[in-house]
Amino acid sequence: MTEFDAAALVDKGFTLLTGENGPGWVNAVDPDMVDVRSIFMCPVAQVYGSYDSGLEILAGYADAFPGHDFASANGFDAPQVREDQYDALDAEWKRRITATR
What DSSP string describes the chain? Predict the structure, then answer.
């Protein structure tokens, strides 16, 4: 098992969102409301209005729904259902979004 690194995972997701939407996407996200546990409040859902649609766009409209592996590899979900991982991802997303604005 690889070590959990919230900053590295969020960096990948941040890069994906920026590549797809340009740097202005951060203005569509309320950092105080970021919650990767929620399909309504995670950064993907806040940008695209839908977690599922956002993942499909970011994954390049793959034949199959991108799912948990894609989401967790890019910091949009925790690799394991562990509160410490969710908390770390939330904190890192909030930090990165706030610092970029």
Answer: -PPP-HHHHHHHHHHHHHHHH-GGGGGG--GGG--TT-TTTSHHHHHHS-HHHHHHHHTTS-SS--HHHHHHHTTSS-SSS-HHHHHHHHHHHHHHHHHH-
